[in-house]
TrEMBL record:
Protein origin, superkingdom: Bacteria
Domain Response regulatory: 24-137
The protein's name: Response regulator
Xref: Pfam families: Response_reg
Keyword Phosphoprotein: yes
Alphabetical UniProt keywords: Phosphoprotein
InterPro entries (alphabetical): Bact_response_regulator, CheY-like_superfamily, Sig_transdc_resp-reg_receiver
Sequence positions bearing 4-aspartylphosphate: 73
SMART domains assigned to the protein according to its UniProt record, in alphabetical order: REC
Length: 239
């Protein structure tokens, strides 16, 4: 295994405008829209980024290289990100920074209990908060020194990434009779819609989550979700 941020004899040094220069971030994130926000923040900060969209892909990445930072979503299609965080905390040598991320602010306690060094809440909007979360968790020997010059302009992920997530959810909806898949779909869409400011879709996703939690029939909630997803896909086709 190689440490991907130390694989050159003279790695680049952080600068005032690019404080994460020379670092590599592994984003374990199933949403292409959320990952695009992370990508933009990483690029503005000087870091390289790779993406794994599930636990299996993340473990495959981590068997081959060692990033500086792992940003791990709580809800993933093949399990909980909290379990992966606990695995990485127990590894030796430990990754310099392990952050949890979720659209549910109540997830922070769970992710920190698993061993996360910090927490990022979706939607990701602030470059300063992103950089601060990483730098605060770095060992003192690796913290960038000097003054940081941060342009905290809003981050705007690619709308096509949102549409890709919508298409993915619509495909999953065809199999939503499986209880575990309905739970995953509800949390995925609630987080995605919250990040994109799609209030109607977020309400529909939370209605499905509530029906599942209260053991009520989900047919109506699934029908409503299906209609909203197809409306958004129709908009994409019109564009």
């Amino acid at each position: 295994m190689t440490d991907s941020d130390r694989n050159t004899p003279f790695p680049p040094r952080p600068t005032a405008t690019r404080p994460l220069l020379g670092m590599t971030i592994l984003a374990v994130e199933d949403s292409r829209y959320a990952c695009d926000a992370l990508r933009l923040m990483a690029l503005r900060s000087g870091a390289r980024i790779r993406r794994a969209d599930c636990l299996q892909a993340a473990r495959r990445h981590l068997s081959l290289y060692r990033p500086t930072v792992a940003v791990i979503d709580l809800g993933l299609p093949d399990g909980s990100g909290a379990g992966l965080i606990a695995e990485l905390v127990a590894r030796s040598p430990r990754l310099p920074v392990i952050l949890g991320i979720s659209g549910d602010p109540f997830a922070e306690n769970m992710l920190r209990a698993a061993g996360a060094d910090g927490f990022l809440e979706k939607p990701l909007r602030s470059l300063l908060e992103f950089q601060n979360a990483i730098i605060a968790a770095l060992p003192d020997s690796r913290k960038p020194g000097g003054i940081r010059l941060v342009s905290d302009d809003p981050i705007h992920p690619d709308p096509l990434a949102y549409q890709d997530d919508i298409a993915h959810a619509a495909a999953l909806l065809q199999e939503a009779g499986e209880p575990g898949l309905s739970d995953y779909l509800a949390q995925f869409l609630a987080g995605l819609a919250r990040s994109a400011g799609d209030n109607a879709l977020e309400r529909a996703a939370r209605a499905l989550a509530a029906a599942r939690a209260e053991r009520r029939p989900t047919a109506q909630a699934l029908t409503q979700l299906s209609a909203l997803l197809h409306q958004r896909l129709a908009t994409r086709m019109a564009i």
